Amino acid sequence: MKKPKGGKLGIKEERAATAGRTHPKKRLYRSRAHSNPLSDMRASDAPTTPADVDWAALYPAYFSSDEAAQGSSRARQPGEPTVRFVDVGCGFGGLLVRLSPLFPDTLILGMELRDKVALYVKERVLALRREHAGQYGNVACVRTNSQKYLPNFFRKGQLTKLFFLFPDPHFKVQNHRRRIISPQLLAEYAYLLAPGGRVYTATDVPELGTWMAARLDEHVLFRRLSEEEVAGDVAGGMLTSATEEGMKVARNEGQTFVAIYERIQPVEEAA
Amino acid sequence: MEAHNPAGHAVAVALGCCIQVFDCRSQHSSEAPMEHAAAVRDLTFDPAGRMLLSGGDDKCARAWDAATGSLLHTWEAPKKISAVAFSGDSRVALFADNTITALVVAPGGRRLASADRDGKVRVSVLPRTPLLGVPEIQSFCLGHTAFASCVAFADCPAGLRMLSGSGDGTVRLWDPESGSLLATLAASALPAVPAADGAGAAAADQAAEDAAVDEELLEKAAVAAPSGHLWLYPREELPPAVLCIAVAPDGRTAAIAVEGQPELLVLDVDGAAGTLTLTQELELPGLTRPTAAAFDRDGRLWVVGGVAAEGARAGVLQLRVAVRGSHGGFFAEGAGGLAAAAQAAVEAAYTGGSEEGAVAHTGAAPLQLNSQLKKRVFSEELTAVRKRTRAEQ
Ligand SMILES: C[S@@+](CC[C@H](N)C(=O)[O-])C[C@H]1O[C@@H](n2cnc3c(N)ncnc32)[C@H](O)[C@@H]1O
């Protein structure tokens, strides 16, 4: 390994200095705010199939040490724990940390495009696991482009919750196709979600809120939850307060637009 | 690029920006210019054989009258169109942009397969009214380790099957309903290291060196992914790509064209057992570089080969037709055959330029689409390495 050079973002040096006993410092992991998910193409970002992911390495507490030792060559066992919740564009991981104790039996994965941000979340989770023995084993983070590779990670109908909190707005009309909610991607989300599974969206950008709701409303495989249903949704209650972005908006007394949808199975088209 | 009229008497060929339709029965080739403003990327007849649909780098899809060659309609898209298809009832034209490399509607018209540059093959439920979108994905067929270049359905007695070809040099057989991989056939391999004198040892050395380079790359990537999650395909070096898959009406026979290879591979597709077996390496006289193939209703195999210069309106084009013998193997159709006229017309139309020009084109890249995809993959890899290096500093 090459010696890290000094510089603004000497993550490795910093990590060595703090000797893994404290939490990672967020400021060291900042990187450019927006990336273009369509131009970010990195061959090694994705497993070929969901079976190629080394889940035991991500969630060691849920697998035996034997299984962990076999790495990704291990054949998947029926009934073995699988990820059910995914936080797409998880940022600094606030939601993962909040959900973990609330859903201790559910494996939750954060997906993040930016290298350094993903690295920060990984370190954060490891630090939490060290400090709270027996906890936070159910959350993990991978660095990947979720707009391209979700089906490489999860099987059909595997997921029950998908979170899209404060996604990048991509304001310009010609950049709308980069948005994380689009007709094409909704087809993918519907494929990954089990019937009854939910999509959570939150944004402080009114135009994006309207746009996401419109795309979901017009999609035949999604149905918007009623206010009552929203009120009864535990995860839904924390969308505005759990994440770093949400807290920032709250501090600035901004408004947040939340919309929750359910994956439905419409009656078959008459043959 | 070639499409075959399902009615069995015409073949359409695109070279560069131009499309020509050759009618074998009337021995007539389309006279009206059928052109795009930039290279044509995909071409297909509708199931009834009356229309032709083309899409290209000019961001246009065009529907043509197959008999007269007259333009029926043009659609403009925001991006370059890379794949086109007709719905099963011929009433809807489907097209896809950029990252999609192939688009095929299954027999029965209720499934749509698309292949993409990331190696994914997606099977969608095609609604009766696809104008409202294609919202439901049936399956993802995952396994290719380089771009997917082509797909074809096989209507087997055991059920619908699907084949896909890729830049990874393989042809794969899938159950399109579940996305499960049934069989993988290596249609090509990485070119052997050129052997100098007393070659064996040198080749072995080279192989060892290559392996060491791979190791090093893997190590580098492992550093960049500290949690130990690592997926690395040695993508810079790809074997010759599978260019085209044609499946016979019996759903049992497939013909494969491989980049740079003079022979077509004929495969037996056993949908019930889930196997692919190579049954013949078919060489057709005068056809040096087959790039596209299609079966007609009678099970004859039409094959187009040749080369086009990038964006050129000319090139070398060869058309051959193979028929099946009583012993089961294919052989070139004799002189008096239905396709002979079209064959002559094709060759006259495209080698009409200067002799020199033709020779120069022969030396050019075998297939534009393919070389483009490869370049892309290479630059992706470069990006990855650059990024990793950055992440390490
Ligand atoms: C504005 S931040 C919000 C982060 C977090 N959800 C929160 O609420 O604090 C959006 C995040 O999505 C990530 N992102 C954008 N496109 C992505 C993609 N295609 N795949 C994965 N992450 C993506 C960005 O890197 C960024 O960290």
TrEMBL record, chain A:
This is tRNA (guanine-N(7)-)-methyltransferase. Residues 22-33 have a biased composition (Basic residues). It catalyses: guanosine(46) in tRNA + S-adenosyl-L-methionine = N(7)-methylguanosine(46) in tRNA + S-adenosyl-L-homocysteine. It holds the Pfam family Methyltransf_4. Belongs to the class I-like SAM-binding methyltransferase superfamily. TrmB family. It comes from the Eukaryota. It comes from Elliptochloris bilobata. Its EC number is 2.1.1.33. Its main location: nucleus.
From TrEMBL, chain B:
It comes from the Eukaryota. Coiled coil: none annotated. Keywords: Nucleus, Repeat, tRNA processing, WD repeat. Pfam families: WD40 (PF00400). Its main location: nucleus. It is found in: Nucleus. InterPro entries: Trm82 (IPR028884), WD40/YVTN_repeat-like_dom_sf (IPR015943), WD40_repeat_CS (IPR019775), WD40_rpt (IPR001680). GO terms for biological process: RNA (guanine-N7)-methylation; tRNA modification. WD repeats lie at residues 33-74, 141-184. The keyword tRNA-binding does not apply. GO terms for cellular component: cytosol; nucleus; tRNA methyltransferase complex. This is tRNA (guanine-N(7)-)-methyltransferase non-catalytic subunit. It comes from Elliptochloris bilobata.
